[in-house]
């Protein structure tokens, strides 16, 4: 289960309802926590991270910026979101992945740099 950019699965109440229902059914399901998607529904990613951390099994590292009329995904270092605090609130021992556009002439080097950036940020969190 991943929080997406819709009201049905992109709000904290929707995700909490899902995890309550799955627990009542005797399941132990986890989630992919997309750090940026919360903004599309006006949700606070830090509040969501604090509430949902016990269920997080995978983290999509996504920064965001607001353009006229829409949110866009950007590297964490360019984000207006409180991504460092969100990382601190999430489990450190789960996989983390890049979930934003990688742009540059040498995509291998850009990818390496972004992976190193996320690893360093995770270690500081």
Keywords:
single chain; 4 helices; 125 residues; alpha/beta; 3-stranded parallel β-sheet; two-stranded antiparallel ribbon
Notes on the structure:
The chain contains four helices and five strands; from the N terminus they run αβαβββαβα. The chain is of the alpha/beta class and 125 residues long. α2 links the parallel β1 and β2 (56-61). α2 runs parallel beside α3. It is globular, with a radius of gyration of 15 Å.
Spans of at least 5 consecutive residues whose pLDDT stays below 50 are none
Mean pLDDT, all residues = 95
Shape, principal axes of CA atoms: globular
Largest sheet: 3 strands, parallel
**How are the strands of the biggest sheet laid out side by side?**
1-2-5
Structural class: alpha/beta
Q: For this entry, what is the oligomeric state of its chains?
A: single chain
Cα Rg? 15 Å
How many helical stretches? Answer: 4
Helix content: 25-40%
What is the H/E order? HEHEEEHEH
C-alpha end-to-end distance: 24 Å
Q: What's the number of extended β-strand segments?
A: 5
Proportion in β-strands: 15-25%
Summarize this, please?
The protein has helices spanning 12-24, 45-52, 83-89, 107-124, and strands at residues 31-34, 56-61, 63-67, 70-74, 96-98. By secondary structure, the chain is of the alpha/beta class.
Layout: helices, strands, pairs:
Blueprint: H1 12-24, E1 31-34, H2 45-52, E2 56-61, E3 63-67, E4 70-74, H3 83-89, E5 96-98, H4 107-124
Parallel strand pairs: 1-2, 2-5
Antiparallel strand pairs: 3-4
């Amino acid at each position: 289960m991943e929080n997406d950019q819709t009201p049905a699965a992109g709000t904290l109440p929707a995700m909490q309802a899902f995890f309550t229902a799955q627990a009542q059914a005797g399941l132990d399901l986890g989630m992919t926590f997309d750090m940026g998607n919360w903004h599309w529904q006006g949700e606070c990613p830090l509040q969501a991270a604090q509430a949902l951390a016990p269920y997080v099994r995978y983290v999509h590292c996504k920064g965001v910026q607001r353009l006229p009329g829409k949110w866009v995904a950007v590297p964490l270092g360019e984000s207006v979101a409180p991504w460092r605090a969100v990382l601190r609130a999430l489990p450190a021992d789960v996989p983390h992945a890049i979930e934003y556009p990688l742009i540059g002439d040498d995509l291998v080097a850009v990818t390496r740099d972004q992976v190193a950036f996320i690893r360093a940020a995770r270690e500081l969190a």
